[in-house]
Amino acid sequence: ATCGHGCKYGECMGPNKCKCFPGFTGKTCNQDLNECGLKPRPCEHRCMNTHGSYKCYCLNGYMLMPDGTCATSRTCAMVNCQYGCEEVKGQVQCLCPSGGLQLGPNGRTCIDIDECSTGKAVCSYNRRCVNTFGSFYCKCQLGYELKYTSGRYNCVDVNECVTNTHRCSLHAECLNTQGSFQCKCKQGYQGTGFDCA
């Protein structure tokens, strides 16, 4: 079985047929499945979609049970948590629906952890980190684009001279470089390459 476009989060099962891992969808299994939009809904109250999965949380005054359901709780209502709570050894603790969120100083609301600036996020070579609320993702560095080559997804250099996305003067030559480009004024002209006279 060969899949020309590859199966990013899945396995190749037949000619260009991917079987996606749970939580992913699309022809090449490269899209996150939004479980919160499924019928029947996976969560009783509120649902937060995450990369390849999802998290359930309850309305204020309810407690998230181990089976994912929400049970009324007087203690929870009193604590007034933003995203529901749980009881641990008789102590009520507010919950955050994602590992990329942490409890704020008031112990009730959740604040975002910037994985990119704290160094928690590790992006592979040629990729930069982009922080999102509750998570992060890795994006190709500027001047590179995501391409499926030799059996995997890689960030490959964009040839600005070929794609015509350079800003060289009409009287200059465009020279492609890794992740960028250079402009050189043609013979008989002088200047920066962006302006040649």
TrEMBL record:
Example of a GO MF term: calcium ion binding
Residue ranges constituting the EGF-like domain according to the UniProt record: 32-71, 112-150, 157-195
Compartment annotation: Secreted, Extracellular space, Extracellular matrix
GO biological process, one term: cell adhesion
Keyword field: Calcium, Cell adhesion, Developmental protein, Differentiation, Disulfide bond, EGF-like domain, Extracellular matrix, Repeat, Secreted, Signal
Residues annotated as transmembrane: none
SUPFAM superfamilies from the UniProt entry: EGF/Laminin, Growth factor receptor domain
Pfam families on file: EGF_CA
PANTHER family cross-referenced by the UniProt entry: EPIDERMAL GROWTH FACTOR-LIKE PROTEIN 6 (PTHR24050:SF24), PA14 DOMAIN-CONTAINING PROTEIN (PTHR24050)
Similarity field: Belongs to the nephronectin family.
Protein name as catalogued: EGFL6 protein
Organism: Pycnonotus jocosus
Lineage: Eukaryota, Metazoa, Chordata, Craniata, Vertebrata
